[in-house]
Structure formats: structure tokens, C-alpha cells
Amino acid sequence: MSRYYSRNRYSSTGLLDRGRSYRSTFDWTPRSRTSLYYREPGCHFDIRDYRTIVELDTDIPEADKEVLRVQKVNFNIAENVKAHHTDKFEITDVMKGDKYMKSQLVVRRGQSFDIEVEFDREFSKEKDDLNLIFEIGKRPLVSKGTSITLTLSDADKPKQWGAKVKSKKDKEIVMTIFTPPDIPIGKWQFKIDSIFKDSDSKKKYRYTHEDPIYMLFNPWCPDDLVFLDDENLRREYVLNDSGKIYSGTAKNIRPKPWNFGQFEDFMLDCCFHLLEQSGLSYKVMGNPVNVSRKISAMTNAPDDGGVLVGNWSGKYAGGTSPLAWSGSVRILEEYWRTLQPVKYGQCWVFSGVVTSIARCLGIPARSVTNFSSAHDTDGSITIDNHWGTDGKPLEEYNSDSVWNFHVWNDVWMARPDLPTGFGGWQAIDATPQETSDGVFCAGPASLEALKNGLVNLPYDGAFIFAEVNADRVHWIHAPDGQTSKQLVKNQVGKSISTKLPIGQRLSGAIGGGDRQDITNQYKYPEKSHQERTAVWRAAQASSLPVDVYDIKDQDVFIDMIEKDDVLVGQPFDVVLKIKNKSAAERTVKATLTARVVHYTGVPAEIVKSESLNIKLEAAAEGKVEMKVDPSDYLGKLVDMCMIRMNLMASIIETKQVHCESDDFRLIKPDIDIKAPDAVNVAEEFSVEAKFINPLPTPLTNCEFTVEGPGLQKPVKVKIASVPSGAEAKLEAQKYTPRRPGDRKLIVSFHSTELSDMSNDVDIIVK
């Protein structure tokens, strides 16, 4: 009589008696055929998974009992994962008491690992042949490199598949397994074929291990394309499960703590599922160029049902506001549970999720914020803004835009598909802005190629180059049909930022914090010969108008200055400084407008506007000031409390025009967190948080979120409405740390009137 069992890491360890004979039938039937499966009560039932169904043969013929049989396989998980830098993955060390999960082996390619196999009798070279089989995918094939058969040898075989006898004692053999540094990542199945060499016929027995081997990229292996030769950088870009994502404006940069959580127990299964859903074949799943491009595609939802739905409308009914997320864990957990895109994300959320996925798979990754980030829609390498002479933007012509900031990712890898010298950091962008090869994705694009204007190298170089180094052209349209223009060469791509790697805080931080400015990795200094050469080189491959740079010198200098440290709810002023550099009188006619703006550059309501007429004598200077009160802007603000100052000025005598746009962000109060500096595993501790409501109106629908990898899975705490000037307080909350190590606890706050607020603290878990 035969029975069928599901073989997966959530099943009990005692379902199969390995002392019996098993005949493997490779029936890759989805789990919708539930009648064929045993299910542990309360265990996770994964309808997406495909497994080998094993037929248990209870009647072993007497003649077959000579065949060597596997009694037990020990993956030496604790020792192997420590050597492979995968011991932070929660599935490698399942907590005691969880009877529905078993510890799993997670290793990195190109690096050997040891396994122990115990047989029912001693292995004999004269009597027995052993084949070790490693397979990946639904249809493993030798020709595709997805089915590998190894025989035992006594030699090391680095950089290739191999199996060496490390030691042998009685019925047990310790084997060292070697893997190449370019094999597909994913879940590999492990099998053993035992063949008894009989004079008449060869009798065969197959053992199929019930748990897969999780195979990852290896930044520690010099022969892996993702090799990163710096331990501090590997600690940050692969092993750090928390970090910061920057937002705001170039003059007011604000860090947002983020829980990447790449070692959570569900994360590897979720990431491998995404790669399988992407349509990427296993044959190329070992190439980080292909994998990172698919990551940028599968993180967004528009054309492939990926992780996140983008929403820039300001209306988030039916989902979560992008401003309310403080980590990737809740997002990916919801996606994995429902297999439906999660609502909603914006650029920093897409970037945070990409960082989590890439680091989980072993690709070094960092989140990158570009301030004054251009969105070039026509491939001209210029950002064209059109204005009327009244100072109002002609929105029907303004398809290009400059975002206050935009967040994407860099991933580290060699690029054998490009000429020598273009490996290292590569930009990828998961925010669905423009399609590439018909899919919403961007990159990987070599930073070295971008810096030098080599935009034709794959992938999407022209679009990403424009984001950091486009020139801005203001076109002013007069009622009589005349058009004048102003070229601005240094307004795009400022203060490109990422979190400083671990161990470099004292030497490379900006302003004493942990922000690293990497602008020089993307572009040469503004207006330098190299930078202008890169722009011209990129322009040769673009639709750049030939006369854009044919602009006369200006003899009136205008500078717009606004404060960058205004607390929301407070007044501010904007100052125009004007200098006449000519030897004759000049008349300046200008319109100065303060306007609420989305961080993507999309304008919202006008806050205040003033028209100015200023006469300046030869070589004279002047100053004009416009004051803005809280009553002018409160009630009009959108998500990130950003205001754009637009200046449109013309010089009557010379027809010179001057256009300038500058954005600033009203700052929000910091959250004060009270938590212990150090705690013990499984020892309860408390957290409190508070801040003062700076608005003249109450805060409603208030909610704190607390989370931290290894400390606390994301939890929401609702509080009552907070009156103006009152304290918003998270009362003492009790949490229990799950794992030891240096941890980050992140507290964020969201309400209808005030959101996008977060802070973090360090906690050592012993």
C-alpha cells in the first residue's frame, strides 16, 4: 500500500521513515491537488510551491536489501551558514518550540560546504556507486545546467561542481560539496543515487532530501560577478538589515530610518518566487545583470503583477499611504501572503523594497537619493519648462519635470557584457516612470558610463543620465508669438546621497551624521571641462535641439533666497537680491509665486503671488522681500509639506529673461524615543515615544508604528487625536527581542494632518 506526503520545510520531521525504500516520482503537480497531500494542522499551506511527491514503498523485495540506503543526512547548518555569512537568516536557526518549521541550509555559490550522510551499512567502493544529484527548477536539464550529477572523489574542485570525501567512519561519510561561482541562485533539490554493483544487474536506490538548499550570490567569492573586496562594505550593503533613505531638498535633507529586514523567515521564499514569476529562466538566474534588471521590474506592479502599486494622487483609500511605511517587511509579507500587489508606494518605498530583495539574494545594494532629479520624457537630455510672460507655467507643454528628490538603487557587480572598466556600482530604478523594452524598469546602468556621458551602453543610460546631469531650459512665450529662452547648467542632480557604510562614520559623514554624498560617483564637478564634455557626449545620442546653447550673456544678476529651516506652522519669507552689472539703468519686471508642490514637481495650489517693478541704476544692487504667513499655506499642503518658489523676471531694456524655481520643505518635529541601550534575548523591554504638535489644528487618525529587524515585527499603535501644542505620546509598549546583535528600533508616526515622521535608536541585544 502506498501513501503520498508533501515534502516541505513546514512539515513534521517524522513523516518519512528514511530506513525504508522510496521511489521518487517527479510529479510537479501544484498543490491545488490537495487530496495528494498531508497537511500539518496550522501549518502554512503554500499553493504556489511545487515539490517532489514521494511514494512510500512499504514492501522492500528481499533481493533489493543489499542496496546501500541513506538513514540520515545532516546539512551541518550551524557550521555552514556561519562560514557562508548566512547565519542571520531566520530560517537557518528556527526557534525552539516551532514544530511546523525546520532550520534550512542557506549557502553562497562558489564556496564549499560540508554535509554528513549516514547509511544503513558501511560504504564499499567495490560494491557501491554513489551519485550526488543537485537539481533546480520544474524541469531540470543537464543541458541547461539545472541538473548536476556528481561522483565522490578525493580531490578539491574549487570553481566547479564537485564532491570530495572529507572523512569516513563506519556508516557515516562527511562530504565537501564544491559549487561554481556562476550557478543559478534559487532552491536546489538534493538527491543521492545508490547503486549496488551486482554481477547480474545494477540495483538502484534513490534518496530525495525533503528540504532544499538555498543558493545565493556570493560577494565574498572573488570569482562571483558580485564580488566586493571590502568587509566594511559587505557588512553594510549585504548584511545590514536596517538603514536610512533620504528625502527633502538639497538644502534640507532628512533621513528616514528604514527596516530592510532581508533576513526575515519568509524573505528568501518570497524573493525566489518573484524571480520565478518574472519569467527569468534558470539558465540566466546566475547572472546578476539579468537578476537585478528583473528586480527593478518585479518591484512595481503595472505590467507584471509585482510587489507595489504606485500612487502619487494624495488619495490612498483602500491601501496604506506611502508616507506611513517605515520598512519593507510589512510590504513583502503582505505580498507573500496574498500574492497581490500591495497598495501603495512612491519612489523611496520602491527603493527600500529593492534594497531588501537584492541584499537577501546576495547582491550588494544601496538606496540612493538624487535631489533636484530630472525626468526627461523625450530623450533630449534637457528639461524643458515653458512659461507665459505673466510668470505662470504653461502646464500643457511641460511634460518634463524636476522632482525635489528621487530615490533609486545602486547594485554592485562586474559587467562582462560591457567594455572593460564599467563594472562596480550600477544604477537600477524600480519606480514606474518610463518603459524599457516594453516593461517598467530601468538599469542596470554603469555609474562610470553615466559619469562620462556614454549613454548608449545598456541599460537605460540616457534616462538615468538626464536624471542627474540634464541641463534645464526655460522657454518664455510672449503673446505676440515671440519665444526667448534661458539655459541653466547646474540645477539638476544635487547632493546625491546614500547611507555611509558601517565603520566609516567618522571619516566620511556629512555634517557629523551618517549620510554619504556620492555625487562625484555620478558626475564630474558642475561646469568643469569633464562635466561639460560628458553632457555634450550624451547629447550626441539624444534629440537635443542644436540651438539650445546659443544664448547671450546676461548683465543683470538675480538671486532668490529662502530659508530652509522653517517648522511647519511658522511664517517664512523669500528674498530677491538683484545686481545690475551693466553701465546703464535697468528695469526689472518680475512675478514671484509661492506654490505648494508634490515632491515629483507636480504643482498644486498657489500660496501667494506678487508682481514687482524694480529700477536699478548702473552697477546698483537691490533687494525685495515677500512674507508668507501660516494662514497662507495651512490647509493647502500636500504629502511632504513642500513649497516651490517660482520667479519669472524680464529686463525691459535688453529683453533678457530670468526664470528660477527653488523648492524647500517645511520641517516636522523630531520623534523623541525612550528605550534601553541594551537588553537580553527573550527579555521584555518597554518603548515610549513623543513629540509636540506644531500645527494650530488638532492631529486626527493618529498612529505610531514600531518595528526593528530582530527586535520587533511591525506593529501599529493607534492614539487619540492630539490638540494643537499638545504632546503626541506613545505610552510604554512592551516588546521581546528575538535575536542577539546590534539592532535598530524604528518608530514612525502618521496622521491625516501630519505624516512622514520617523526616528530610530540603537539597541544592543545580548
Would you mind describing this structure in some detail?
- One of its GO terms (molecular function) is metal ion binding.
- Its EC number is 2.3.2.13.
- This is protein-glutamine gamma-glutamyltransferase.
- Ca(2+) binds at residues 469, 471, 526, 531.
- The protein contains twelve helices and 43 strands.
- With 766 residues, the protein is mostly beta strands.
- The longest helix is centred in the middle third of the chain and has 15 residues, at 347-361.
Give keywords.
about 775 residues; mainly beta; Immunoglobulin-like; Coagulation Factor XIII, Chain A, domain 2; 4 domains; 10-stranded mixed beta sheet; 6-stranded antiparallel beta sheet; elongated
CATH H-tier superfamily of the largest domain: Transglutaminase-like
Q: Low-confidence spans: pLDDT under 50, at least 5 residues?
A: 1-59
CATH class of the largest domain: Alpha Beta
> What's the average pLDDT?
88
Distance between the termini: 52 Å
Counted up, domains total 4
Structural class: mainly beta
Shape: elongated
Return Rg in Å: 31 Å
CATH architectural arrangement of the largest domain = Alpha-Beta Complex
Pfam families: Transglut_C, Transglut_core, Transglut_N
Keywords: Acyltransferase, Calcium, Metal-binding, Transferase
Family: Belongs to the transglutaminase superfamily. Transglutaminase family.
Organism: Owenia fusiformis
